[in-house]
């Protein structure tokens, strides 16, 4: 139900949640898509521009999480800058740094004005096939056996992270 123009969203979303909303602090997030990225694919190569980390080892893979965010408050609010993925065995994976000066898809913490969204509507990430800002992870291939994966969004001022269940 909506009250005073603000919808309430949970702080946890289960698998098969593409399009599901979750609140983290003052920002509402939506998982656009999450998937393994293939560096030999024409589309996926563009997501890996500006990555200085070494290529994945034979037992690793690139995994992209594409998020959309909206400030549903009446004040400016900043999107999260801290994320991680945890598998069912307790392994924790952190985003790989991406040079935001050369990669138009890379997630960039941003202060959003009231009702403003990220990625901004005039951006490549917004109009791209994923419709979201990229968080890039290097996962061990054992993650296929250790599903579901949980994306944790650590919002400033929030005691516990908000989570989105991911599936490979």
List keywords for this structure.
mainly beta; globular; 2 helices; 168 residues; 39% strand; Immunoglobulin-like
Notes on the structure:
The structure is a single chain. The protein has 2 helices and 14 strands. It is mainly beta and 168 residues long. The chain starts with a strand and ends with a strand. The protein has helices spanning 42-47, 124-127; strands at residues 2-3, 6-7, 12-13, 21-24, 27-37, 60-71, 77-78, 82-86, 92-93, 111-112, 117-118, 133-140, 149-154, 162-166. It has a single domain, classed as Sandwich (Immunoglobulin-like). The model is unreliable at 1-6 (pLDDT under 50). Strands 3-14-13-8-9 form a 5-stranded mixed β-sheet, with no helix packed on it.
Question: What is the compact description of this entry?
Answer:
It is built from two helices and 14 strands. The protein has helices at residues 42-47, 124-127, and strands spanning 2-3, 6-7, 12-13, 21-24, 27-37, 60-71, 77-78, 82-86, 92-93, 111-112, 117-118, 133-140, 149-154, 162-166. A five-stranded mixed β-sheet has the order 3-14-13-8-9, with no helix packed on it. Strands 4, 5, 6, 11 and 12 form a five-stranded antiparallel β-sheet that branches. A two-stranded antiparallel ribbon has the order 1-2.
Rounded mean pLDDT score: 91
At CATH's second level, what is the architecture? Sandwich
Proportion of residues in extended strands: 35-45%
Indicate the percent of residues in helices.
Answer: under 10%
Gross geometry: globular
Query: What number of structural domains do the residues give?
Result: 1
**How many helices?**
2
CATH topology annotation? Immunoglobulin-like
CA(first)-CA(last) distance: 32 Å
- Helix and strand element order: EEEEEHEEEEEEHEEE
Q: What class, by secondary structure content?
A: mainly beta
Read across the widest sheet, the strand sequence of neighbours is 3-14-13-8-9
The CATH class name reads: Mainly Beta
Spans where pLDDT lies below 50 across 5 or more residues = 1-6
């Amino acid at each position: 139900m909506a009250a005073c123009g603000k919808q309430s969203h949970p702080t946890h979303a289960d698998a098969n949640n593409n399009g599901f909303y979750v609140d983290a602090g003052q920002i509402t997030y939506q998982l656009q898509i999450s998937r393994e990225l293939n560096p030999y694919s024409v589309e996926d190569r563009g997501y890996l521009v500006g990555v200085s980390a070494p290529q994945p080892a034979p037992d690793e893979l690139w995994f992209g999480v594409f998020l959309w965010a909206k400030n549903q408050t009446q004040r400016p609010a900043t999107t999260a800058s801290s994320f991680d993925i945890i598998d069912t065995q307790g392994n924790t994976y952190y985003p790989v740094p991406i040079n935001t000066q050369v990669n138009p898809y890379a997630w960039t913490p941003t202060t959003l004005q009231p009702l403003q969204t990220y990625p901004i509507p005039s951006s490549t990430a917004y109009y791209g096939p994923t419709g979201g800002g990229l968080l890039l992870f290097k996962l061990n291939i054992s993650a296929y056996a250790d599903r579901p994966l949980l994306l944790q969004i650590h919002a400033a001022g929030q005691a516990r992270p908000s989570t989105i269940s991911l599936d490979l």
